[in-house]
Structure formats: C-alpha cells, structure tokens
Automatic annotation (TrEMBL), chain A:
Coiled coil segments of this chain: none
Main location: membrane
Membrane-related topology note: Multi-pass membrane protein
InterPro entries: ThrE-like_N, ThrE_Dicarb/AminoAcid_Exp
GO biological process, one term: succinate transport
Family according to the record: Belongs to the ThrE exporter (TC 2.A.79) family.
Pfam families noted in UniProt: ThrE
Name recorded for this polypeptide: Membrane protein
Domain of life of the source: Bacteria
TM stretches of this protein: 120-140, 147-164, 170-194, 201-219, 234-254
GO cellular component, one term: plasma membrane
Subcellular location: Cell membrane
TrEMBL record, chain B:
Top-rank taxon: Bacteria
Annotated source species: Paenibacillus graminis
Entry similarity comment: Belongs to the ThrE exporter (TC 2.A.79) family.
PANTHER family noted in UniProt: SUCCINATE TRANSPORTER SUBUNIT YJJB-RELATED, UPF0442 PROTEIN YJJB-RELATED
Protein name: Membrane protein
GO cellular component: plasma membrane
Keywords: Cell inner membrane, Cell membrane, Membrane, Transmembrane, Transmembrane helix
Pfam families (alphabetical): ThrE_2
GO process annotations (BP): succinate transport
C-alpha cells in the first residue's frame, strides 16, 4: 500500500477513527445522509484510502476502508440540529482534502468541535423560540393581539420541552407534555381575554417544536436514493408530529 | 405587508438560533427567509400552493448559494433559514390533530398535502443545487 506513504505517521485504525468521528459529529448535528457519506469518503480518500465505503442511517454509521480491514460501526443515539458543528466539520474536511492541515491537526480540531456546547445560552434559545412563535402567529394571519400570548406560550412551551427532555430521556414524552402545556396555556389566554383565536396561537407556538425540517430532509434523502435513512427520518418526524397532535388533541377534548 | 416582511425576517433568524447557526449568519438567514416567504405569499395568491412553494424554494436555494460563496459558509446554514417559513410544519401538526380528533378524511388530506409540499421543497433545493453546479463547474466541491 504505497498510497499511504504520505501519512506514514498515522495508522489505518487512526484514520478510520478520524473519519468516523467526523461522520458521528455531522450525523448528530443533523446533516443530510449524503453529506455525511460524502465527507467521510473524501476524508478517507485524502488520507490515502480512495476506495472507502460507508453506510449511513440516522442511527448507525458503518465504515470500511478496504477489503482487508474489518468494518467499523458507530451507534448514534441522540440527534439534534446544530448548524455550527456541521459547518465546522465541513471546513475541517475541506482543509484536510486540500492538505492545509494534517490528520493529527484535524483530529484535534474535531475533538474540540465534538465537545463544544450549544453556542447560545438557554435563555437566548427560549427567547428565540418565543419570538419565533409570535412571528409565526402573525405570518399565519393571526392578529397582533394573538402574537402577544403566543410570545409567552411558545417560550414556555419550548422551555418545557427542553427541560423535560433533560429530565426524562424519552423525546415523545417531552414533546407530548410540552404541547399539552401549550394547548392549556393557549386555552386559558383566550379564556382570560388576552388572545382572540386559540387556533392561531397554538399553531404559532408549536412551530419551534414541529418537525418540518425533518420531513423535508426525509424526502430529500429518499430522492437521493437513501431509502432506509429517508424512511426512518420520516418515521421520526411522524412520531414527533404525533406527540404534538396528541398533546393538543387532549386539551381540545377537555374543553 | 410590511408586518409580514418584518415577522418573516425575525422568525427565520430566531429559528436559526434554535438550530445554533453562527451569529454572523443570522441576518442572512433572516433575509433568505424573508425573500422566500414574500415570494411564496405573492405566488400563492395566483397559483397552486405547491408551485408557489417550489418556486420560492428555488429562489431561496440560489440566494443561499450566493451567500455561501460570499460568506464562505456551507449552503445548508442559509437554506435552512430560508425554507423554515415554507416548511409544512403547521400542516403536519394540523393533520395529526385531525387524526386525534377522529376526522380521518381531513387528516389524510392534510397529511398528503404536507408530504407533497415537503417534496416540492426538497425538489426545489435539489434543483437550485443543480443550477449552482452548472454555473461553477470548475470549482468542483459543492459545500
């Protein structure tokens, strides 16, 4: 294997681990399947393994460099959307391909990216969710009087979803309870005369929770030929929508 | 109208905060979302919703590519901000709510509509990517 001579200081296993780490960060941060596969095989190719193969689904990455090496597998349990990390891993892989940095530097930088926390503190996120809810209420042709309760309802709903998710590891439960809370708050705000149309307040307030992006990514994966990823992302999105629908439906069935 | 402009800008930018987009990309995200939403509103009044969504997504995709080139960040950061207002999250939720309320016919209608809309968005993104690739054959890597 003379093609590896340029990286004689790093062993094959290290390179596989490096590619897997990059793939893991990207997949956990919500990158599309094809982007993960593309990045991993580009990194492998630039490190001297042009024939690397990977198989990526939302829950697992399988990666092999050649016929003689065993396939390595990485399990992904938790997925969020973190554009910053996707962008940084993208950048590292591009620099690696252009030989601006070495494999060791890439590993160090990937480690930093992997450990990095969300760039915005929790209160900024909650404030952002609140603003999103209020703006979507207006965009869906709600009045400005509905936007005011939507501001509080969506902020509280998002905060509830975040903290419940930290408390119990079941996402369905967190989303269900948060949307139940949103429904209740919207109902009481209308009852107290703060808002006018309960429907508009609810639909704006659940927007930070609904899986719209996940649905789009699922269809995109399907069109790119990643059938397993597409279907499982679709199922994921369906479950989330189901949790929200059930939470709101429960409130509506009471009143 | 101006209210819609402002709210769609803020909504797209704040949604990008939830998705942890870099601070220096937020204004561009908001702008992409605003353009997409305004175009969607204008077209939706005349044509079919699916056509309007598709056209708006293509424009958002092209804008995102331009932003990505001039600000040296991956396309996905801007395109997500741009398509957030178009994404049928509200419809998906509506469909689920109708299912829960036992109104299955309406629920399936909403669900199919949501699926078609996300198909239109996905097609629009792919289409704008193809357009972008045709304009820059030399540079090879699409970010």
């Amino acid at each position: 294997m003379d093609s590896t001579s340029s990286n004689s200081n790093t062993s094959t296993h290290d390179i596989i681990d490096l590619c897997l780490l990059a793939g893991k960060i990207m997949l956990q941060s919500g990158a599309e399947t094809y982007r993960v596969e593309d990045t991993m095989s580009r990194m492998a190719a630039s490190l001297g393994f042009p024939g690397a193969h990977s198989y990526v689904t939302p829950t697992v990455i399988m990666f092999t460099t050649s016929r003689t090496e065993p396939v390595k597998l990485f399990r992904i349990a938790e997925r969020t959307t973190d554009l910053q990390k996707v962008s940084e891993v993208n950048d590292i892989s591009r620099r690696l391909s252009e030989r601006q940095i070495t494999a060791n530097e890439a590993r160090e930088r990937l480690g930093v990216v992997d450990d990095a926390a969300h760039a915005y503190p929790a209160w900024v996120q909650i404030a952002a969710a609140a603003l999103t809810g209020a703006c979507f209420t207006v965009m869906f042709k709600g009045s400005l009087w509905d936007a005011l309760p939507a501001l509080f309802v969506s902020g509280l709903g998002f905060a509830a979803a975040t903290y419940l998710h930290r408390l119990v590891q079941i996402r369905f439960f967190a989303e269900f309870t948060a949307s139940f809370l949103i429904g209740l708050l919207a109902f009481f705000s209308v009852r107290l005369g703060v808002g006018q149309e309960m429907d508009k307040i609810i639909i704006g307030s659940v927007m930070p929770l609904v899986p719209g992006l996940l649905i789009t990514n699922a269809v995109r994966d399907l069109m790119a030929g990643h059938l397993v990823s597409g279907l499982s992302k679709g199922a994921d999105a369906f479950l989330t929508a189901f949790a929200i629908g059930t939470g709101i439906g429960l409130v509506l069935s009471f009143f | 109208m101006i209210l819609q402009l402002i709210t769609s800008f803020i909504a797209a930018a704040t949604f990008c905060i939830l998705f942890n987009a870099p601070v220096r990309a937020l204004v561009q995200c908001g702008f992409a979302g605003m353009v997409g939403w305004m175009l969607y509103l204008q077209l939706d009044a005349k044509w079919d919703t699916i056509v309007a969504t598709f056209a708006a997504t293509v424009v958002v995709g092209v804008i995102s590519q331009l932003f990505a080139r001039s600000f040296k960040m991956p396309v996905i950061i801007f395109s997500i901000g741009g398509i957030i207002p178009l994404v049928p999250g509200g419809l998906a939720y509506d469909a689920m709510r109708k299912f829960v309320e036992n109104d299955n016919n309406l629920a399936i209608q909403f669900a199919v509509q949501a699926l078609l809309l996300s198909g239109a968005i996905a097609t629009g993104l792919v289409f704008s990517e193809v357009l972008g690739q045709m304009f820059r054959r030399k540079n090879g890597r699409s970010t």
